[in-house]
Amino acid sequence: MSYDNRHNDPQYVPPQQLTPGGPMHGGFTFTEHIDPTMITTAVLQEVLNERRNQDEKWGEQNHPIHWPLDGDEGRAAYQAHADTWKLINAARVKWANERGAAPDRNCSWDGIAFEELYEAFAESDPAKIRAEAIQAAAVLVNMIECIDRGAR
Known about the structure:
By secondary structure, this protein is mostly helical. Helices cover 58% and strands 7% of the residues. The protein has two domains: 3-58, no CATH class; 71-148, no CATH class. The protein has helices at 36-58, 71-98, 109-122, 126-148, and strands at 18-25, 28-30. It has a two-stranded antiparallel sheet with strand order 1-2. A hairpin with a 2-residue loop joins strand 1 (18-25) and strand 2. Helix 1 packs across helix 4 (126-148), helix 2 (71-98) runs antiparallel to helix 3 (109-122) and helix 3 (109-122) packs antiparallel against helix 4 (126-148). The longest helix has 28 residues, at 71-98.
């Protein structure tokens, strides 16, 4: 979706349906019940806008996925970090579940995001790196949506 054509998008929430304060979405609160996919679309539009800002500031970026000198040792270190966060997350979930936490309150975004990101960097196959990066990006978008819902 082009930024200039956002008003033609049926998922676009016009500013007049938003009010300042409270649970945030780009600094605004939804004044009526909004379909969750509309929130996701708005968050992804913000991500797209930030990507455009990055390109304007830095130009096209084509960094290597891994530091070239790290090789297998670097990926092994990332895997160790991912494994550590899996253990941390499992312990958090167990602790919270023992205390009756709701399923959406038994872990935290930091652990989920770190686990997914480290899993991406632990891979060497570009297709697996991409799949893990998509998962990490989705977790971060979900975290933003949580903030926007005021549920953090």
